Amino acid sequence: MNFEFSDEQELLREQARGFLGEHCPPAAVRAVLDGDADYDAALWQKIVEMGWTATVIPEEFGGLGLSYLELVVIAEELGRSVAPVPFSSSVYLATEALLACGSQEQKDKWLPLLAAGEAIGTFALAEGNGRPSVKSLTTRMDGGGLTGRKLPVADGRAADFAVVVGASQSGDGASWYLVELDQDGVSREAVRTLDFSRGHAVVQFNNANAELLGGEGAGWAATERLLDRAAVLFAWEQVGLADAAMIQARDYAMGRYAFGRAIASYQAIKHKLANMYVKNTLARSNCYYGAWALNTDSAELPLAAATARVGAIKAAVFAAEENVQTHGGMGFTGEFDCQFYYRRAKLLGVNVGSEGYWQDRLVTAYEQNNAA
Amino acid sequence: MDFNDTQEEAAFRAEAAAWLQANVPSQEELAGLDEIAAAKLWQKRKYDAGWACIRWEKQFGGRAANAIEQVIWNQEEAKYDTPGGVFIIGQGMAAPTLMTWGKPEHHERFLPKLASGEEIWCQLFSEPAGGSDLAALRTKAERDGDDWVINGQKIWTSGAHYSDYGILVVRTDPNVAKHKGLSYFFLDMKSPGVEIKPIKQLTGGANFNEVYFTDVRIPDSQRLGEVGQGWQVALTTLMNERAAIGGGGAGVNVDVAYRIASEVMIDDKPAIEDSAVRAKLADWYVQESGLRFTGYRSMTAMSRGEIPGPENSIGKLVGAPKTQEMASFCMDLLEMSGAIWDENLSKEAGLLQLTYMGAPGGRIAGGTDEIMANIIAERVLGMPQEPRMDKGMSFSEVPTGSN
Fold first, then answer.
1. Does domain A7-92 have CATH number 3.40.1010.10?
2. So what's the ipTM on this one?
3. Which of B242, B369, B383 to mutate to test the interface with A (most CBs of A within 10 A)?
4. Strands (DSSP E) along A135-235, which ranges?
């Protein structure tokens, strides 16, 4: 048993942190937040050149064939730097969907493009307010084309294609469709979210050209499996973010004086920071479990993923909220960077399922493990 | 990262599991024995077969096992309901302090009997005027020839009434700053002048005590560290204390809570189908799992030669309040009957009520929740201490209250 990353993985972390420190400073996040672009295209190009989009794609499809342990290291650092890029949509969701369910032809076509950053993919599940369920799906194949409306779709405008969850008459009630987004049957409109540093869209399908990805009527089980895998990767981003927010709060409290002493010396502040540290540490340890389960395709993945995800949602949201609080009035201004974490933590906290969704999945997985 | 056993680890696990299966005492074997006799029987059996305190050197009764092997052993032993608990202070706190600060003759004399469970130790640190501010303790020691003469009072001493030896921090110089005037000893609890009075706890039990010292003589050879170095020696004990108390998992855990939530009804449906109940259970599962894997990560760090640090405080800081919340929540699930504390009428034979009543002790003993949070903030995150009113004063000048 070994519960740490290898020396090589630690070296990768160091490189990633250095790279993002240089190419994704707060000014880069702010530029996307305040501007009209959906993402930082220059940063994205550099990330592609680093090979990160190719990390787990097998070499036969132009990837690096590395393990998920490398990918989680990158995810943590992307979360730490609040990177304004479509990495999660393209890598954790679209790439994973193709790897899981793509036909040979689909993999041959798309995986090399994803690896080389020549295509960006995304995953379209939600259709508005409330928890998506197989019964709630209205997007469907109708007269040979796909029709329906998905919102919000992360990176919906940046993406070249989407894996769309649609209703099906057969099997588990859903099917996956691979849809190229630059076509007459698809219209996309930007939608404002909490975190303008990450582009989102409303995507309307009107008899759009679409092909099945995976089996007809096998889309809901595939969705749950995909969300399990993505949950681990999102959780690592959240843990990176939580750590960054905690360090920002600590550093500010050390330098901010009130009543003649650093506010970091007041127990009210110290206990807040200790609480962040505790939540972050537990979340990180659970993320190790998730990373291991993802990497080994363990039967424990549903439980490990939900455990990592619930802990990481809590840690990131708490650290982001209390970081603002520690900064006082300055934290509430647009001038300070606390807002980056505050926006992103809540976005990450809902975009592959909320805390409540994953709490429920966790207990279900626990029950299934006990029954096995 | 690999959560599976290596070949060597799997072999070690198989050996441990086989030995446990053949040797864990049966209920019949333990029938009629009190808690201490039962614990001693099991500990001696482990010791004789080389399964006691497995990380210790062989000559002291261990098998020089590594940190991961300790994890494996703990996992395997935890599959059985074995008697224990009374050795935590001796093996988990006194022994590491003896190893760090004691002389070879101390090791030879005391460590094997700690490992075998033949001798039980207690910890004489807290005083009525020195709890969270432990260094404010007043029990004094005065040199008299080769001995020290001890006068004063300790409090909250778990197991003093059945212990053979105790570790003791006392004030040897009141005229220097608080932390600088302390020295550290161990003593025979049967020494003349030691008087032990049980304290009734809110659980109804009386496991801890007041211990009074009246002209108790301790030979200077039983001092650990230099005169005036007692605080540093005590820190060795305290750091190990937090690791030893740890997160626990005994008592009310997610498995127990799940069982209860499956059995009791809310609006004629099993409580476990209620989303609020599921959310709570999920959160506790996340905490239990997080503590378990945090512990494993620290074992990996130790197996690479790193020293466990103040981050060990996290187990107690999370585990103790969690235990209290879970017991409280499970009693709520029982509605009006949650108040019944009766072995025959209560769910789980009254475990919930016992756990809830004992839980405040867990949040206080070995450093309160608040002290644990301070330790994390100061020693892990590097934040400054609160200003101290007694800084730079000699102990005799420090203001005190009436309690």
1. no
2. 0.95
3. B383
4. 140-142, 145-154, 161-167, 174-180, 186-190, 200-208, 211-212
